[in-house]
Each structure stands twice: as C-alpha cells, then as structure tokens.
C-alpha cells in the first residue's frame, strides 16, 4: 500500500468507499504545537507525526489495509504552555475530539484505530478516549514510539535528564535529524540538565519554574544515524501491531 492509496484526504468518493469496504485500520497521527528550544521548531511533534505515519504506510506496503487520517496538530502542552511557541488544548478537548472521530469512523464500519502519538503530553487524554471508545465498540490503540526502549539504550551516549521525560534532547533531536533534517539547527543545540524539584512527582510544575530551556538533556549528542536505528525498530513494531489489530477486527 502506497500513501496515495491510503490517505483519506487524497481519495475521491469511489476510492474512499472501496477502501472502507475493506474495514481498514485507521491511522490517526497526533502531535502538538510546543516550544522545543532554539534548535527545533515548535511544530516538531507534528513534523514527526506526519513523517512517521508516511513511513509506516510505506513499511506496511499493503500487508494491512490502512486508512490514513489527517494530522491532529494541537495537543495538551500544559507544562510548556507559557512558552511563546506553545498552544495547548485541555485533556478534555483532546479526548473528546478523538472520541468523536472514532464514533464517526464506526458509523462507516471502521472500528479499529491506531493513534500515532509523538507528544507524550497527550497520553492522559488518549487513555481516556481509549476507554470511552471501548465502551462504544471501537478499539483504539495508542502508539507512543513502541519498540523504542531497547534501541534507545543501545545508541544513547548521554544520560537522560529525567527517567520519565525526554524533550528536544539527544533522542528527539536524532528523530528529527533522521526524518526532517532541514528543520534542525544543530548549531543552536544545547546541553541542559535542570535540577527537578524534589516533589516533582507529587506536584504540578511548569517547566519554566525550574529550567531556562525546554531542552531536557544533551541535544548536541544527536545524530541522524541514532534516529534511524531507533525509528526503524519503532516502524517494525508498529507494523506488527497493526497486523494484529486488523486480524483481531476480522475475527470479531
């Protein structure tokens, strides 16, 4: 399957009807508009989401019927909402949008959706949507870079700034150098290891309260090769999950 055969925005009525008849798995890319420092644009998550789903459709190459939906370009970015390059929606809004898309797809016979999420701030909203859609008979899978953990450990040269967070760092910048090198300004990359508050896990903090930069880690250590290695594993795992999701739908 090539992108032009799966992208809903590019299909006419007859083509869309034929694809829907195959009960494809719908791919919903979602990102965010969020500050990423001086070396990456505010649209980093959106760029990654678009290019990752494009690569995924090509990787699957027709083995699993896919319906590629338009990108959802806004997400929940509360932690960096006070930055000039950030625009944030509430968790409730993100969740409701995803649920309503899911219900619209269900009305057309599509009951399996995979969200390709490149912004971890969306996870709470997506989990809520996942549960609400399950009650409506729609299966929503959430892909937050599945399969990335092991290759990340293998290629990482600098420590993570926080065990639960990565942002505009060695790893995310490597993703961009691989998928969108024209958008990266490596000469402006920085090293930033802020001192997280001791009660960071218990209280809510804007990141600007403890860090002068949205970068968490060492962006200067990023390379396109690191991004390629990690994302190749991610694409392989997503392709496997899509095949299983499609098979599950056919058995239902």
Automatic annotation (TrEMBL):
Alphabetic keyword roster: Hydrolase, Metal-binding, Zinc
Family: Belongs to the creatininase superfamily.
Any Gene Ontology biological process: riboflavin biosynthetic process
Matching Pfam families: Creatininase
Keyword Hydrolase found: yes
Coiled coil: none
Cofactor: Zn(2+)
Name used for this protein in its record: Creatinine amidohydrolase
GO MF annotation, one: hydrolase activity, acting on carbon-nitrogen (but not peptide) bonds, in linear amides
